[in-house]
Amino acid sequence: MATLITGGTGLIGACLAEKLLAHGERVVLFDLAIAERRITPLRAHGDRLQVVQGDVQSIVALLDVVRAHGVTSIVHLAYQLGHGCNRSPERATRVNILGTVNVLEAARLSGLERVLLASSIAVYGSDEEYAPGERPLREDVPLRVASGLPIYGGGKLYLEHLARNYAEQYGLTVAGLRPSIVYGWGRESGSSAFTGEMIDRAAVGQPARVEFGDARVSLVYVEDVAEQFQALLDADPRVLARRRFFNTGGDTCTVRELVAVVERLVPGAQIEIASAGEAHIAGLAASVSGRSLETEIGYKRRFTPLEIGVRAEIDTARARAALPPLAR
Q1: Residue 190: pLDDT above 80?
Q2: Cis bond leading into 325, ω under 30°?
Q3: 181 by DSSP, 3-state: which?
Q4: I need a labelling partner for 210 at 20 to 30 A (CA). Which of 166, 188, 224, 281 fits?
Q5: DSSP character for 324?
Q6: How many CB atoms lie within 10 A of CB 268?
Q7: Which residues contact 120 (CB under 8 A, 6 or more apart)?
């Protein structure tokens, strides 16, 4: 028995793998571009970790890895992110849509127990598109798709429909998360990668710069997201049949307020803030509720309020640079 994680050497995948391996499970990381710097520490788990280079655009490659490694569940995280989808819609469609269909087909043909998908808060609109009584946004509000991410957000909405179709037509257990903006050490891609880069640079004494200073955002630490996926792997299928996609929730702040947290934790941090008075980033919602995960799955975020998660990322960045952790 093993869990296959597509996009497995990315930020969330590597963190999830670490947690599954710590529980004695077998993990297969499937990725087109292997980010070795993230997974080197995981190789200490020996044969319980397998790393396979492959492309989700190939259903044959997915079927081969499922059958070769005794995979029983898949966490699908291999997507083209954010504004990159606007620039390359054809590639985004192949990777995000065809890739997801291939994962679901591989699971169906192989008789797997469960597939978890990464949707996004990009399926919503910005806060301003909702009435005050609808915020923080719950999973049942209208899905309007983030205005600046129509290809990415629209693709996420489509994959949610795919999930329901495969569950209802084939009896496959399919569920997933709608993550807020995920931050953590080594975040390199996506519309909000600048937040993680700013924290990582400040942590080791390097100057940093951020944009969108006045934009409001919903931030969730990567370890919370990994643990949420872990909780969904263990959740009762009957619960997932009632609600297939859950918000991760997140801490709401402006980018400027995030910088202030970093500066409190790292005195003397040199962070330049730019702003054109934006209310949001790419139309993403900033007020998102994670209450359903708490009440229906039993997982409550640990890295909140914001300072707890930011401190964790700073300490990780400093450890990677052979520096001591922050003073407590």
Answers
A1: no
A2: no
A3: strand
A4: 224
A5: P
A6: 7
A7: 152, 153, 156, 178, 179
Token readout for 171 is: 């009896």
Q: What tens digit of pLDDT does each residue of 103-161 get?
A: 999 999 999 989 999 999 999 999 999 999 999 999 999 999 999 999 999 999 999 99
In order of start, what are the domains of the chain with their CATH numbers? 2-254+278-320 (3.40.50.720)
Contact 207/270 with Cβ under 8 angstroms?
Answer: yes
Chain segment 51-63, per-residue pLDDT in tens: 999 999 999 999 9
Place of tokens 């995920």: 182
Mean pLDDT for 75-93 is: 94
What is the dihedral sign for C-alpha 231, 234, 239, 240? positive
Q: List, in order, residues 6 or more apart from 19 with CB less than 8 Å away.
A: 226, 227, 230
Q: What is the DSSP string of 9-21?
A: TSHHHHHHHHHHH
Kindly report the pTM of this predicted structure.
Answer: 0.97
Beta bridge partners of 28: 4, 50
Q: Say how many C-beta atoms besides its own lie within 10 A of residue 275's C-beta.
A: 14
d(CA 201, CA 203) in angstroms, rounded, equals 5
* DSSP type of residue 24: T
Q: Is 175 exposed, middle or buried (0-12, 13-18, 19+ CB in 10 A)?
A: buried
d(CA 102, CA 108): 10
SS (H, E, C) 80-112: CCCHHHHHCHHHHHHHHHHHHHHHHHHHHHHCC
Is residue 252 helix, strand or coil?
strand
Distance CA 213, CA 82 (A): 19
